[in-house]
TrEMBL record:
<dbReference type="InterPro" id="IPR051697">
    <property type="entry name" value="Patched_domain-protein"/>
</dbReference>
<keyword id="KW-0472">Membrane</keyword>
<keyword id="KW-0812">Transmembrane</keyword>
<keyword id="KW-1133">Transmembrane helix</keyword>
<feature type="transmembrane region" description="Helical">
    <location>
        <begin position="29"/>
        <end position="49"/>
    </location>
</feature>
<protein>
    <submittedName>
        <fullName>PTHD3 protein</fullName>
    </submittedName>
</protein>
Amino acid sequence: MSKFHTDCIEKPVASGLEKLGRMVGRHPWWFLAIPLVCAMALGGGFAFLTKAKANNIEEQFTPVNGPAKADRALVSRYFAIDETSFTPQRLITEGAYAAFIAVHPSGKILSEEALTEVLRIDGVIRNMTVSESGQAFTYRDICAQKNGECTPNAVLKALGNDVRAIGSIAFQFPLWVTATEQTFLGTTLGGVETNGSGIVQSAKAIRVFYFLKESEVERSDRWLREFLKVFTEDKNDFQLQETQVIP
């Protein structure tokens, strides 16, 4: 075995490292400055990180040609979403929407006092002005519509901005049937107690949805950020006494 040399790799590597060490020792500032300059130049790409950011969980974590996507494409083909005649039941995606829940611990969310606060919050949300690319807009400009108006909350629509009307309205739960339409209240009212005829006697919570046009991606995202800001930074402006609000 003494006739064989096994340092055919070790010697050139050691020689190369020796030369590199001498070069670093003779020119230390070059080896300090060049990595810093390269790191700064490459790190400049982080300035574009926000624009390149992707929050689409479906796109990132589901198969490109998965069977579920093919099935949804088929449903979309025959049951297309019409943003001018919108109903939540026809959604085939998660949809674009915001919502808040107003809670009355004593089960009196349908009282005049509690509904006054709910209408006050709803008014702030619908009237807040948002700017995107120098253009101002409100919820009305980007909302999914039905019969020419933004998709309404059934309870608030029935009030017609007059909380005194609540005493004359008999809500059936979970399906409220009127002369013109049928409305499912299971996603609108919570903690409901009814009488033997299914008429709502009391409720602890009401949820108000704000459905947006999925075609208005940038403006909808900007409006949603402003919506969250209202409930975090400007929440005290609501002056709530009867209800607790959860965005």
